[in-house]
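B., you asked whether I could sanity-check this one before it goes into the benchmark set. Here's the sequence:
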Amino acid sequence: MSDEYRPRFSFEITEAQKERADRLLTTYGLRKAVFSNILDDVLDLLEEYGGASLGLLITGKCKPRDILPTMKQAMKE
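And here's what the prediction gave me:
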Protein backbone atom coordinates (compact mmCIF):
# COMPACT_ATOMS: atom_id res chain seq x y z
CA MET A 1 0.00 0.00 0.00
CA SER A 2 1.25 3.49 -0.86
CA ASP A 3 2.26 5.96 1.83
CA GLU A 4 1.19 8.80 -0.44
CA TYR A 5 -0.90 11.45 1.33
CA ARG A 6 -4.52 11.67 0.20
CA PRO A 7 -6.59 14.59 1.50
CA ARG A 8 -9.91 13.80 3.16
CA PHE A 9 -13.04 15.82 3.79
CA SER A 10 -14.77 14.70 6.98
CA PHE A 11 -17.81 15.87 8.95
CA GLU A 12 -20.36 14.42 11.34
CA ILE A 13 -23.74 13.18 10.16
CA THR A 14 -26.82 12.04 12.03
CA GLU A 15 -27.59 8.38 12.65
CA ALA A 16 -30.57 8.71 10.28
CA GLN A 17 -28.31 10.10 7.53
CA LYS A 18 -25.88 7.21 8.04
CA GLU A 19 -28.67 4.66 7.79
CA ARG A 20 -30.03 6.25 4.59
CA ALA A 21 -26.56 6.47 3.04
CA ASP A 22 -25.84 2.84 3.95
CA ARG A 23 -29.11 1.80 2.31
CA LEU A 24 -28.96 4.01 -0.79
CA LEU A 25 -25.24 4.36 -1.56
CA THR A 26 -24.10 0.76 -1.42
CA THR A 27 -21.81 0.51 -4.46
CA TYR A 28 -18.11 0.84 -3.64
CA GLY A 29 -16.82 4.30 -4.59
CA LEU A 30 -20.28 5.78 -5.14
CA ARG A 31 -20.14 8.10 -2.12
CA LYS A 32 -16.83 9.57 -3.24
CA ALA A 33 -18.06 10.06 -6.79
CA VAL A 34 -21.32 11.71 -5.74
CA PHE A 35 -19.99 13.95 -3.00
CA SER A 36 -16.87 14.99 -4.95
CA ASN A 37 -19.16 16.39 -7.67
CA ILE A 38 -21.38 18.13 -5.13
CA LEU A 39 -18.33 19.63 -3.37
CA ASP A 40 -17.06 20.95 -6.71
CA ASP A 41 -20.45 22.62 -7.32
CA VAL A 42 -20.48 24.23 -3.87
CA LEU A 43 -16.93 25.52 -4.29
CA ASP A 44 -17.75 26.86 -7.78
CA LEU A 45 -20.76 28.74 -6.37
CA LEU A 46 -18.66 30.14 -3.55
CA GLU A 47 -16.01 31.36 -5.99
CA GLU A 48 -18.59 32.91 -8.30
CA TYR A 49 -21.13 34.35 -5.84
CA GLY A 50 -19.30 34.48 -2.53
CA GLY A 51 -20.75 33.83 0.90
CA ALA A 52 -24.32 34.61 -0.15
CA SER A 53 -24.55 31.24 -1.89
CA LEU A 54 -23.46 29.45 1.28
CA GLY A 55 -25.88 31.50 3.34
CA LEU A 56 -28.79 30.28 1.22
CA LEU A 57 -27.76 26.64 1.69
CA ILE A 58 -26.96 26.88 5.39
CA THR A 59 -30.14 28.72 6.39
CA GLY A 60 -32.34 26.36 4.39
CA LYS A 61 -33.85 29.22 2.38
CA CYS A 62 -32.86 27.31 -0.71
CA LYS A 63 -32.58 23.57 -1.34
CA PRO A 64 -29.30 22.30 -2.80
CA ARG A 65 -31.22 20.92 -5.79
CA ASP A 66 -32.39 24.47 -6.57
CA ILE A 67 -28.91 25.95 -7.00
CA LEU A 68 -26.31 23.20 -7.48
CA PRO A 69 -25.78 22.52 -11.20
CA THR A 70 -25.46 18.75 -10.74
CA MET A 71 -28.71 18.61 -8.77
CA LYS A 72 -30.59 20.86 -11.22
CA GLN A 73 -29.60 18.53 -14.07
CA ALA A 74 -30.82 15.48 -12.13
CA MET A 75 -34.22 17.09 -11.56
CA LYS A 76 -34.63 17.64 -15.33
CA GLU A 77 -34.09 13.97 -16.19
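One thing to flag: The chain has five helices and no strands. Otherwise nothing jumped out at me.
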